[in-house]
Amino acid sequence: MVVELLGGTDPAARILHGAVGAGRHVVTANKAVLAACGPELLRRAEARGVKVLASASVGGGVPALEAVQRARASGPVDRVSGVLNGTTTFVLDQHVLD
């Protein structure tokens, strides 16, 4: 297993792609790398039979991503609602106030 906590996209993306290519599970809290190459990384991981775990990158570590994945196994997910963390609340409040 590889745990990536570097932040940014380079060299984090290269490290994660290399780990997945080598058949290693990966854990990351890196929002930037997930935004830049998350879907591609997840496709490669699925093809290699490994997991990319990233709950630490959203919602203050609450296992929201896993909950949505479990829900999707039962059918389509139409919406997810709730307060994820203080940063999200701050950004949403600023948007509403503008």
Short description:
The chain is built from 4 helices and 3 strands, in the order E-H-E-H-E-H-H. It has 98 residues and is mostly helical. The protein has a 3-stranded parallel beta sheet with strand order 1-2-3.
Radius of gyration: 15 Å
Average predicted confidence as pLDDT: 85
User: Main sheet: which strands, in order across?
Assistant: 1-2-3
The count of strands amounts to 3
Helix fraction, binned, reads: 40-55%
**Most strands sheet:** 3 strands, parallel
H/E topology pattern: EHEHEHH
Secondary-structure class: mainly alpha
Write the layout of secondary structure elements.
Blueprint: E1 2-4, H1 12-21, E2 26-28, H2 31-48, E3 52-53, H3 64-74, H4 86-97
Parallel strand pairs: 1-2, 2-3
Helix pairs in contact: 1-2
What does this structure look like?
There is one protein chain. With 98 residues, the protein is mainly alpha-helical. Helix content is 52%, strand content 8%. It is built from 4 helices and 3 strands; from the N terminus they run βαβαβαα. It has helices spanning 12-21, 31-48, 64-74, 86-97, and strands at residues 2-4, 26-28, 52-53. The chain has a 3-stranded parallel β-sheet. α1 (12-21) runs parallel beside α2 (31-48). The chain is globular. 14% of the residues are buried.
What brief labels describe this structure?
52% helix, 3-stranded parallel beta sheet, single chain, 4 helices, globular, mainly alpha, 98 residues
